[in-house]
Specification:
Layout: H1 2-31, E1 55-60, H2 62-65, H3 75-85, E2 91-96, H4 102-107, H5 109-114, E3 119-123, H6 126-130, H7 135-151, E4 155-159, H8 169-185, E5 189-191, H9 214-228
Parallel strand pairs: 1-2, 1-3, 3-4, 4-5
Length: 233
């Protein structure tokens, strides 16, 4: 009996000792300052570069888009290089879409107006002519585009085009006259023939006989610069 009581007292002392130890550890943890949770530090967002240069929009079809050429080789790309080399501070924007007709150009006017261009090189009509569309409707579309751009204060440079000789002299004459008439009506700077020195030259055109090669494109860009330059400040 005495042994049982002695064992019970010993067990009680052990339990009290354990509780004291636990209590001591617990108090120590409460007295320590809590460690702050790690905070994720985000890298600062890159600064956006604002280009305040006046905008030149090259608005047209595959001849502007650079059909068949490597990226960065279109005539607007080369035009930017030539403008930079000449010391003018303008930003060239390429809004050419392969296959577009003058009707498509009218539909895409909002995208051009949104760029707030100072100058627009208007290059449409080639696909209209190749499809044999009525010249009267093509001219109406050109006039619609010119009038919309003029209202914004943009200066329009009209790129003239021609057609392969197999389209017949009467249709070709009417087609070429369309650019002359629109240019005269709105007193525009007019490029008589965008592909001057390139069109009809197999060495400067792609196998389709229409679209310039990279070398031909440099000639086209030089032609455009010659007429655009009178408007640059």
């Amino acid at each position: 009996m005495i042994m049982a009581v002695s064992q019970s007292l010993s067990l009680s002392r052990l339990m009290l000792t354990a509780l004291a130890a636990v209590s001591f550890v617990g108090c120590g943890s409460r007295n320590e300052a809590p460690k702050p949770a790690p905070v994720a530090v985000q890298a600062p967002a890159p600064l956006s570069i604002i280009d305040n240069r006046p905008v030149i929009v090259c608005f047209g079809d595959s001849l502007s888009a650079g059909f068949g050429l490597e990226p960065g080789k279109s005539y607007p790309d080369v035009l930017q290089q030539l403008i930079d080399a000449s010391g003018f501070k303008y930003h060239v924007v390429n809004l050419g879409v392969s296959g577009d007709t003058t009707t498509d150009g009218v539909e895409r006017l909002p995208s051009v107006l949104a760029a707030r261009p100072a100058i627009v090189v208007l290059e449409f009509g080639g696909n209209d002519g190749l499809r044999g569309l009525p010249v009267t409707s093509s001219e109406k579309n050109l006039r619609t585009m010119v009038e919309a751009l003029n209202k914004t204060g943009a200066r329009v440079v009209l790129a003239g085009m021609s057609l392969p000789r197999n389209y017949g002299p009467e249709y070709i004459k009417s087609f070429e006259k369309m650019f002359v008439d629109v240019g005269a009506r709105y007193n525009l700077v007019r490029i008589p023939f965008l592909l001057e020195g390139v069109g009809g030259n197999p060495a400067l055109t792609q196998p389709d006989g229409i679209h310039p090669t990279a070398e031909g494109t440099r000639i086209v860009a030089g032609t455009v610069l010659k007429y655009v330059q009178v408007l640059l400040k």
